[in-house]
Amino acid sequence: MENMDLKYVMHTYARNYTYFVRGKNATLFDKSGLDYIDFTSGIGVCSVGHGNKKLSKTIEIQSKNLIHTSNLYAIEPQAKLAKKLVKLSGYDMRVFFSNSGAEANECAIKIARKFGNSSNRYEIITLDSSFHGRTITTLKATAQEKMHKFFNPFPDGFVYAKDLDDIRNKITDKTCAVMLELIQGEGGISPLDKHKVQSIAKYLKKKNILLILDEVQSGIYRSGELFASTLYDITPDIITTAKGLGGGVPIGATLSTLKDIFSFGDHGSTFGGNFLSTSAALTTLDILSNLKENHKLDKTIKYFNKKLEKFQKEYCDIFTQKVGIGLMLGLRMKDENTLKTLIHKAHKNRVLILKSGKNTARFLPPLTISKDEINEGFKRLKKSII
Ligand SMILES: *Cc1c(COP(=O)(O)O)cnc(C)c1O
Q1: Which region is the signal sequence (predicted)?
Q2: CA of 65: how far to CAs of 17, 55, 68, 363, in Å?
Q3: Tell me: the pLDDT tens digits for 223-238?
Q4: Whose CA is nearest to atom 11 of ligand 1?
């Protein structure tokens, strides 16, 4: 299989040739039957765990009835999902569905550009170390110059701010929006300061500049709330989300208070919001909102955080700091090499973790992870230290 993969698939990923064949909640099994504790949930995607029976039942039934008809005809689960997202968010918004995080952000950028069009404003300010996607436009929105090498020319109109304080310096009479991750996912799991975010949100409102929150990673209860914006107590103009929304089925969503910004033909997607992805997302949201309502999610968050904190303190010579919110967590390490070794050893001991930024070990477990899986995962992590 490895040879076939290497021969026919483009080499864009530094793949690990472990052959996973099935999963149960936060546990993956390889083809020889060995179990792995999954603290990654496929990079924040498998929010309801692997092999979720409710989700697989929905996908089974929906795929037998209809997978896709195009957006030229009514799609009931799409309307239901939009209603559920809006109701659960508490915001007065409408939704556009796409297939990925980058596409959700593309839609947000188009909304911002159309909003600024009549006043000739088109600049969007993003933050240093941000990550907004891999398409040419969202890559340019990603304020990491090292990722831009080779791909010039890019669309104009993206301006980078060093930090929240620097945003005010970067605003011009061309600025139409500011796009932020409240918790930078790829940039080191760094939650932004709440008071600074509130202050900049207020300032932008006064200046008639849109606030876009990229919640592709932090959204869908990853922070403990449907959107991290609730924790920050702000009302953005646009929220984008994707990763955890479909429980593994590709889907992206852009929510906006500018409910009538687009006219027919301004935007669209062939696959976006089809029967399969929206019915899967509807079931995923059902499972997760129940988990939130019956306080199970809060308990899991508390337990995981306690274990992680204890682990950090026990090995404070290796882990300098615990960072993150909810189940979007990280441990800062001394340097890149120690992190690389840890991820490698952890994999050998059959617990999966991720990297974020240069030197942060990242934890994005399924939101349904059990106490036993958490305990087992940390036991294996400890073994990976010595
Ligand atoms: C993953 C991610 C994206 C890109 O999502 P894709 O589905 O890979 O296009 C964008 N923004 C943030 C914050 C992300 O974490």
Answers
A1: none
A2: 36, 16, 10, 37
A3: 999 999 999 999 999 9
A4: 132
pTM (predicted TM-score): 0.98
- Do the beta carbons of residue 182 and residue 232 sit within 8 Å? yes
**CATH numbers and ranges of domains, the chain:** 2-52+295-385 (3.90.1150.10), 66-293 (3.40.640.10)
Q: Give SS3 for 39.
A: coil
Select from 184, 192, 217 the residue to mutate for testing ligand 1; criterion: most ligand atoms less than 8 Å from CB: 217
| Residues sharing a CB contact under 8 Å with residue 11, sequence separation 6 or more, in sequence order | none
Q: Ligand 1 centroid to 290 CA: how many Å?
A: 25
Exposed, middle or buried, 270 (CB in 10 Å: 0-12/13-18/19+)?
Answer: exposed
180 lines ligand 1 (CB under 6 A): no
* Tally of CA atoms within 13 A in the half-sphere of 103 that contains its CB: 18
Residue that is written with structure tokens 């590709």 in the block: 250
pLDDT digits (tens, 9 = 90+) for 268-293: 999 999 999 999 999 999 999 999 99
- Degrees to nearest 5, angle at CA 207 with 174 and 137: 40
> Are 317 and 174 contacting, i.e. CB atoms less than 8 angstroms apart?
no
